[in-house]
Design brief:
single chain, 217 residues, mainly alpha, Arc Repressor Mutant, subunit A, 10 helices, Ltp family lipoprotein, Ltp-like_HTH, lipoprotein, WH-like_DNA-bd_sf
């Protein structure tokens, strides 16, 4: 009988050759892989740092080119509005008047354009002052507020003042009547006519009647 081929010497020589060749190939592959790995530069992922915002430069303020006269006119206008409760038109006219402040028209216009004020409140204060110190009628006060020869308030400002003022016009009529009687020795009927006259005190008929009925009390 023939020996099985795996028992023959040449079979084992072939096996040894194959094993050695395989071992050598694996070793070469590992060296090549290691060489490739070592020579490949590492790529580091750098995180982008947020850019720092540069501080904004302070905006340069515009130079104040307002003339001194304009500033003075504005201060004077503010004073008239606050201390004398004047109207906007009244202040303007006072600023430019030859008998007043004598500012230029440009300075006065600048002042009024830059003056922020509650003109209705001023009209109300003026109205109450006329009622209290001069014992005027409601219609008389209104006409004085809007008059070009008076306070020069706008119509809406005068209306606001009349609607919101606090005054006893019956008592005002009585005080006026007593003043006419004392200083001018007028008769009751003459006083009545003066109280209600459109060219006089402009009280209502009811207010005048109250005054005459209480004149001797």
């Amino acid at each position: 009988m023939k020996k099985p081929f795996y028992k023959k010497w040449w079979f084992w020589v072939i096996v040894v050759i194959i094993v050695v060749a395989a071992a050598g190939g694996n070793s070469g592959d590992k060296k090549e892989e290691a060489k490739t790995t070592s020579t490949t530069p590492k790529q580091e992922t750098k995180q982008e740092q947020p850019k720092k915002e540069e501080p904004k430069k302070e905006e340069t303020k515009a130079k104040d080119n307002v003339p001194v006269e304009y500033k003075s006119a504005l201060k004077k206008a503010e004073s008239y509005a606050k201390t004398m409760n004047m109207s906007k038109q009244g202040i303007h006219d006072q600023l430019v008047s030859e008998h007043g402040e004598k500012f230029s028209a440009e300075a006065a216009n600048y002042a009024m354009n830059n003056l922020e004020f509650d003109w209705k409140a001023n009209a109300l204060k003026k109205a109450e002052s006329y009622a209290k110190t001069m014992n005027m009628s409601k219609q008389g006060i209104h006409d004085q507020l809007v008059s070009e020869n008076g306070e020069k308030f706008a119509e809406d400002e005068a209306q606001y003042a009349i609607a919101n003022m606090k005054a006893n016009f019956n008592e005002n009529a009585l005080k006026k009547a007593k003043s006419y009687q004392k200083t001018m020795s007028m008769s009751p009927e003459a006083i009545r006519d003066q109280l209600t006259s459109e060219n006089g005190e402009k009280f209502t008929q009811e207010e005048a009647d109250y005054a005459i009925n209480n004149l001797g009390k």
